[in-house]
Specification:
The chain has two domains: about 35 residues; about 80 residues, Up-down Bundle (Four Helix Bundle (Hemerythrin (Met), subunit A)), CATH 1.20.120. By secondary structure, the protein is mostly helical. The site of zinc ion has 8 residues, from helix 5.
């Protein structure tokens, strides 16, 4: 097995583990591994905000698994450059490189500031 496919295998395991963990938190049956806790029991412990958070991240993780299957995993969806390995270690479901992610966040922030400064002059 080459180093590259070992890496892919490692990220696949990690993503599948995260997807199942979040599925359990969302009160849904895990798709990849056997449940380690009773889903009923866990579902009773989490509130809906946590469920939303979990299903939001799980959606990103499932998208990452799909990219892994299609061979585009670890490639920035914006600029097409490879995403840093260090970034994938921390956020294995990341779909954008650091630069593009920052660009997107700054874009959202400046739109927010514009909206705020509009209000000041009303
Ligand atoms: Zn990028």
């Amino acid at each position: 097995m080459s180093n590259e496919s070992k890496n892919i295998e490692r990220f696949r395991n990690e993503l599948e583990r995260l997807a199942d963990e979040l599925a359990i938190e969302a009160g849904e049956p895990p798709a990849f591994t056997k449940a380690r806790a009773s889903t009923d029991e866990t579902a009773n412990l989490v509130d809906s905000a946590l469920k939303n958070l979990a299903s939001g991240r799980r959606r990103q993780i499932l998208q990452a698994l799909r990219r892994l299957q299609q061979g585009s995993y670890g490639i920035c969806a914006d600029c097409g450059r490879p995403i840093d390995k260090e970034r994938l270690e921390v956020i294995p479901e990341a779909g954008f490189c650091v630069a593009c992610q920052h660009g997107r966040e700054e874009g959202a922030e400046s739109r927010f500031k514009e909206a705020q400064s509009d209000e000041e002059y009303v």
